[in-house]
Amino acid sequence: MALTIQSFSGSDATPFFGDLARLRSTVFRAFPYLYEGNPEYEQTYLSTYAKSEGSVFVLAIDDDQVVGVATGTPMAGETDEVKRPFLQAGLDPEQFFYFGESVLLPQYRGQGIGVKFFEGREAQAKKLGLSFATFCAVERPLDHPRRPVDYQPLDTFWSKRGYTHHPELRTTFTWRDLDDTVESPKPLSFWIRDLTA
Ligand SMILES: CC(C)(COP(=O)(O)OP(=O)(O)OC[C@H]1O[C@@H](n2cnc3c(N)ncnc32)[C@H](O)[C@@H]1OP(=O)(O)O)[C@@H](O)C(=O)NCCC(=O)NCCS
């Protein structure tokens, strides 16, 4: 059976929440996320999507295995950490669709699935009549000891998809890095695409 890409609303995606938690914990262990994984946090995080009106899960399914997931939700229902930089900059969260993450197992990369993840979420944003799509990315120092020598940032990929970096829109998310014993806030900055252009 071929690999398929399927979109589900947040509430219809409930059966796949275990897959998303598994993929997040597997893929986000790598640089630049270095996320140790926290089942309790994953549960809270996923319940946001279950409750959120208008959220979407775009799944990559190989046979009956979920091998990748991308999520998106109207920013209006997001946490303060996500909305605050926009409110402080005088931007209206009601106009934005927010992408949570794209996570794809390494052996499935480079076949255009990442592009389909963007297309699926942008289609949902447009269906909801929202003008902008946005996501944020973690910032790590260039000399970070865990940075692989051959690491390639995704900036070119995102620019090619029509997203512009807005380093002035900043937030922090808190998690525990692989090498740490305690959680610490990590800086992230936002990328935006005008869907009406
Ligand atoms: C982001 C991700 C989902 C992209 O998936 P993908 O299916 O490999 O992407 P595509 O095959 O659609 O690639 C699209 C383009 O981006 C480029 N690209 C994809 N992954 C890349 C990477 N890690 N570094 C640099 N370029 C990359 C591809 O070369 C391709 O370029 P082209 O259009 O010129 O051919 C995948 O790399 C991933 O899961 N990464 C780890 C998690 C992550 O960083 N997620 C993003 C933030 S939540």
Brief synopsis:
With 197 residues, the chain is of the alpha+beta class.
The CATH class turns out to be Alpha Beta
Radius of gyration from CA coordinates = 16 Å
Number of strands: 7
Enumerate how many helices there are, as a single number: 5
Number of domains: 1
User: Structural class of the secondary structure composition?
Assistant: alpha+beta
* Broad shape: globular
Distinct bound molecules: coenzyme A
**Residue ranges: pLDDT <50 for 5 or more in a row?**
none
Q: Which second-level CATH architecture applies?
A: 3-Layer(aba) Sandwich
Largest sheet entry:
7 strands, mixed
* The named CATH superfamily: Gcn5-related N-acetyltransferase (GNAT)
Strand content: 25-35%
Could you state the order of secondary-structure elements as H and E?
EHHEEHEHEHEE
Strand order of the largest sheet: 1-2-3-4-5-7-6
- End-to-end separation in angstroms reads 38 Å
**Might you state the CATH topology name?**
Aminopeptidase
Mean pLDDT: 94
Helix content: 25-40%
